[in-house]
Specification:
heterodimer, A: alpha/beta, six-stranded mixed β-sheet, 8 strands, elongated, B: alpha/beta, Nucleotidyltransferase, domain 5, 3 helices, 6 strands, 32% helix
């Protein structure tokens, strides 16, 4: 059984292909992969950030960062790249400090790595200090605290 | 018309989905002590202006601000800012260390507020005490 293939042909009889659907599909795929990779790089969890009037906006993408999320004020959990990581203080390295050491090694010698902390406003300091200690053990010095920026009057009234 | 509609849809999808930097989000930056070395703070930290953030009662979200010299500000960060600004006016340099020492149960928002207040009083060398050291 033969299928008839329709081809557009010009008056001269030459065969031509319509490229538009293929270009559409390629664009769609490019946009999909660009956007998904950007979302992965954000590494963020939903948290209520503390208010600040002295914090400065920065372009995070210009630096080498590890984003550490601290969520749930009643039972604080540490989330890195969507995975829960054990950050409790123990003798020697814990899971978080090992992860940070690996990231620092991957970054290479002499390249500064920052920790960006995204902690819920009501998280107890104990959890933040434990993360600080893990970052200190990994010899990471850059410590950025993510905040929501507001006017001074608004913050002080809160 | 089909190609034009396709391109318009693509542009719409791109601008709707592309994650933009939240203009209301910003960062407070400081350096952590390098525990790979001695694990001990430098001598200058003993001269630091110390801001202790106490928790008045267990399981409370409140805070009480106490300076090392014993002055207590309750939850009044404006009072703390005035005291820090006064220290600067009396000749304490901008790079003089300021150490924020929160209690374990102190909420993160108060720690950030204390950092904010020290920066607003034009101190540039602000650190956090890590109690496990």
């Amino acid at each position: 059984m033969h299928r008839k293939v329709r081809r557009k042909s010009s008056a001269s009889g030459a065969v031509s292909f319509n490229m538009t659907p293929m270009i559409d599909c390629v664009f769609q795929l490019i946009i999909f992969f660009v956007l998904t990779s950007q979302f992965i790089q954000l590494q963020i969890e939903q948290v209520t950030l503390p208010l600040s009037f002295a914090a400065k906006p920065k372009d995070v993408s210009e630096y080498l960062n590890v984003v550490i999320n601290l969520v749930d004020e009643d039972d604080p959990k540490c989330m890195v790249l969507g995975q829960q990581v054990d950050y409790r203080v123990i003798e020697g390295d814990n899971e978080l400090s090992r992860l940070l050491k690996d990231r620092k090694q991957d970054a290479g010698e002499g390249k500064p790595l920052n920790v960006i902390l995204r902690a819920d406003a009501l998280i107890p300091y104990e959890a933040v200090a434990s993360v600080m200690l893990a970052a200190g053990r990994a010899e990471i010095e850059g410590w950025w605290i993510t905040t929501e920026i507001k006017d001074m009057d608004e913050v002080l009234k809160d | 018309m089909t190609p034009m509609i396709d391109i318009v849809f693509l542009l719409l999808i791109f601008f709707l989905l592309s994650p933009s930097d939240d203009p209301g989000q910003a960062y407070l930056t400081t350096n952590l002590p390098n525990l790979g070395q001695s694990g001990l703070p430098g001598d200058d930290i003993y001269l630091a202006v110390e801001i202790e953030l106490q928790v008045p009662e267990a399981n409370t979200r409140d805070v009480v601000i106490v300076l090392k010299d014993g002055r207590c500000f309750g939850r009044n960060f404006e009072g703390l800012m005035a005291a820090l600004a006064d220290m600067r006016a009396r000749g304490l340099p901008a790079d003089h260390p300021v150490l924020i020492r929160p209690w374990m149960a102190c909420r993160h928002q108060w720690v950030v507020r204390a950092f904010d207040t020290a920066v607003a009083a034009r101190f540039e060398n602000v650190h956090f005490a890590v109690p496990y050291l």
